[in-house]
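Re: the request from the purification team.
They wanted to know what the chain is likely to look like in 3D before they choose a buffer screen. I agreed to run a prediction and write the result into the notebook, where they can find it.
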Amino acid sequence: MEILVCVKQVPDTAEIKVDSEVNKVDISGAPKILNPFDANAVEAAIQLKEVHGGTVTALTMGTEQAKAVLKEAISVGADRAVLLDDPLFQDSDTFATSSILASAIKKLGNFDLIICGKQAIDGDSGQVGSQIAEHLGIAQITLVSKIEVKDKVIVVNRQHDDGHEVIQADLPVVCTVVNTINTPRYATVRSKLAANRAPIEVLKAADLPDLNLGIIGSEGSPLKTIEIYAPPKKAPGVRIKEETAAESGVKLAKMLIANKVI
């Protein structure tokens, strides 16, 4: 079974700072990590390989620094790692990014299954996986919490607010997975050392002959970021605590009337 998993290097959102003087988000000091949902995607791919055999290819787009997340994928069981690194790719929005990834996937081979995390924690758009499927013209199943493969058919649980749906589709398929699908394994010291020595293939825009250069990068992306800022702090609430619940209710009603809420 040939599986490709898309991964992304993102800033650790727990370490992002807000400059209160200018009300701007500062990510310069935040360490770069593997997107947590993509760690679940990698684990799902490795588990399927352990059952069905085959290979797992990890693919990411970024700079030289992004090799770290590919090495992390190799350290837990991925067989091949590919980095898309070209100045022409910089500042691509989700549509441009998915176009680049889809072109690379076409070049790299015929995959039975493509797995992505449901979203990246830096942008939270949750669009790239679905867009890859559209570019490739294959089926997609989002918010997957369980995967089983039987012959050339995939059966998954799709998570939603009231439980889950059981969906079946013929391969090839793109799946985006949620974090309840598994618990990512830890790499060993030996596997980390081996991953550091593993070759990482680098592809440029020129290596993707079917890629439309007019729709990538900052110039080609249809989505433009005008401004990034931290949300304003909310005003403190008012606590009403009278001797009895009835008295508290009366006071609340008077306040709402005074402020023309009711």
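For the purification team: The chain has a mean pLDDT of 92.
Please add any questions underneath this entry.
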